[in-house]
Amino acid sequence: MSTPRPLTGVSVLALEQLQSLPVGTQMLSRLGADVVRIEPPGSGEAGRGAIPTMTDRDGKPAGATFLRYALGKRCIAIDYANPRGRDLILALAPRFDVACENLGPGRADRFGIGYAAMSAAAPRLIYASISGFGAGDSPYANWPAYAGVVEAMSGTYEYARLPHEPPVIGPMCGMGDTVAGLNAVIGILAGLRHRELTGAGQFVDIAMYDGVVHVCDLIPNYWSMGLRREMDEPRRLPGLFKGFRASDGWFIVTIVRRHQFERFARTVGHDEWLDDPALQGSWDWEDRAEDVIRPAVEAWAATLGKAEAAAALAEAGVAAGPCHSAADISNDPHVRARSMLIEVPRPDGGQPVLVAGNPVKMSAVPEDDRTDTPLLGEHTDKILRDALGLRDDDLATLRRDGVIG
Q: What is the location of CATH 3.40.50.10540 in the chain?
């Protein structure tokens, strides 16, 4: 008998697109939930067309964003802008534990499948919504948002921006989306537990902006404690937070305590720094990083690879790591050992597509090794038959009228 996963028996109806919600439902699926995506007929949700693409087993394009977050899910194609499609979704709601959407500000309500309508059809439903700025009283409530927008508003870009240079857009590869998706998972699990206690469903309201402010709270926190700079002044932090060049690339070092600096100095062969009055404290390391520390460290690392330099420092108790390229990540022994990249076979041939594995490792739960992604509408007929008892002629009529695909 196979080991049940923690969320076995939990069913999720996901009106999802692109990244933020699909990140969260991917996690729910890996933990055992049955996740059913609802996509519009025709081209499906926007992630299927995200560049780069491959050709799927039905001969249609499957975009990178879709491939990363659709593993192990099922898919039904319903035109939710059509009143008959809306009615199908409302009829499905009582058959599910969770419904969730990230269609954009107010769109689910306009289609008649927002929380009010869905909870009226299914009072025990946990309904989660992800948007840029939430469903509350935010002055930005109607603004569209991608990850870069909320990352910029969180202060992250200004914090990292080099003086007199424009901000770099999207350096964290959609962190605003990913954080929102994981916050949705927390909210959904808490909602399910609350329902066990009370019997009642509820609305889980996730704002992408909230999530990035939470993750990057160091920025306003430091500012409130007096660590400030003018717009185009260099950023100064107490400690050594620098990247250094090795023979084949860069490695980074993070030093915030005196004993760490002592280990660092000895490892790179500069014991004299320990008695240098100009290098005694964390602000000193920042101030002398370019004229004293950098030349010495890069001379030491000139004959070492970036991984070798980082390993030497790490073995001495200094927090350091190589700045990896995509190729480095794909060959990293930690990533391989912990199954953090999964190979998705390409029906059109060529190198398998690499997608992230599950970062949540549980001793009694096996790794989720599924690599299948659903075709658009692949499970429409079966789900509508099983859940709503529709007959073949009913399905044929709905398909002929463009309500389902």
A: 11-215+341-400
